[in-house]
């Protein structure tokens, strides 16, 4: 086994660019999945089954099919329908949509964990429906679910390399490009592999600390 | 879509199913070995198993696949057939998630059960095989169902390496027809159908195992939701 430190130092500038793109995708994807997930979770609580049923089917479908195929779908089919976005935007949207079907379950569990007494108190105080949600239920529910949401941010981080297939140059995309140009595969791939392990391990330590503070 | 193209898709389905079967067998073996090792009494065994879990859960499955396909042949001279390379990468990655499921279920067994085994003079292996596992395995099934679906979704990644699975055949069809909406819709539906069948299978397995351990089967989908964090996260819990 040959290990060439020069290849590593040549790759590092590329690596930092790739990391930046990965973090951009992650930020956009998280934002989208947090908001969309909450929307799904709230829609699933509407009394009408004409809303719940379609939302349930669609989210189940998105959750049980590969993100990779969804990426291809959005990347190739949307332009056919006359909608063109940048590869990065398409990728962030796909990843956000995919993970919103996971975060909706987290929100649901968080909302269900709010004690019934809170609902009854809101009714007793004659709070309007909107106010019950925004001032009583959601603040308590969201506080509980932050660690679980953070979990999905890490899961999303590990799925960002897939965006390589729709020409986004994130970490793995850069590593592949570098490998093909310099015929050195071992170093760049190992560097990003270690980077993923380090980032997700540090993030999980951070999450555990957050969990101890938030969830009592 | 002509019948020739459908044949291509069917061959893709076959490759995906093969990968799924081999990958899930390897992942199950890895989960049980590593999961049991994480409850071992020697700290070094626990440490090594924990290290394995952190490393393979920490990295991305796609990066892992690239590593197995490109770095193993160059660095160690191990050139694997694509099917085995894909199985190895998927099995090792998803096995790391599975080991967390096994560990959780083993720890959830009432300690009195193990103590009972000790009092009756069972060896550690007998305790595991005859007392702990029969009670722990039914509890693992909902989580393993989640993991199986994740593995199914993971098999699509090998198409990036040019393996002719379902996703790869979809790309070929797209290039042949110069239109994508139809074929990608079909492919998504096929993946969904496979996932649906797997879920049904796992539900019946759970029912049978729980009956064998003298327990009521709960509502399967609710149990799956509760345990989802084990298969998707790096720790932490759902609410």
| SSE class of chain B | mainly alpha
Largest interface: A-B, 61 and 53 residues
CATH class of chain B: Mainly Alpha
Q: Radius of gyration of chain A from the CA trace?
A: 21 Å
Average of per-residue pLDDT values of chain A:
91
Name some characteristics of this structure.
heterodimer; A: 216 residues; mainly alpha; MetI-like fold; 8 helices; 81% helix; elongated; B: 239 residues; disordered C terminus; transmembrane helix (chain B); Ectoine_EhuC (chain B); transport (chain B)
Topology:
The complex is a heterodimer of chains A (216) and B (239).
Chain A: H1 5-43, H2 49-63, H3 67-80, H4 87-112, H5 116-124, H6 129-159, H7 171-182, H8 186-214
Chain B: H1 3-37, H2 43-58, H3 61-76, H4 82-108, H5 111-119, H6 124-155, H7 166-177, H8 181-212, H9 220-226, H10 228-232
Helix pairs in contact in B: 1-4, 1-6, 1-7, 2-4, 3-4, 4-6, 5-6, 6-8, 6-9
Could you describe the 3D structure shown?
The complex is a heterodimer of chains A (216) and B (239). Chain A has 216 residues and is mainly α. Chain A has 8 helices and no strands. The radius of gyration of chain A is 21 Å and the shape is elongated. The termini of chain A are far apart. The model of chain A has no long low-confidence stretch (mean pLDDT 91). Chain B is mainly α. Chain B has a single domain, classed as MetI-like (MetI-like fold). Helix content of chain B is 80%, strand content 0%. Chain B is built from 10 helices and no strands. The relative contact order of chain B is 0.14. The C terminus of chain B is likely disordered. The chains are: A mainly alpha (216), B mainly alpha (239). At the A-B interface, helix 3, helix 4, helix 6, helix 7 and helix 8 of A face helix 2, helix 3, helix 6, helix 7 and helix 8 of B. Chain B: It is found in: Cell membrane. Chain B: Belongs to the binding-protein-dependent transport system permease family. Chain B: This is Ectoine/hydroxyectoine ABC transporter permease subunit EhuC. Chain B: GO terms for molecular function: transmembrane transporter activity.
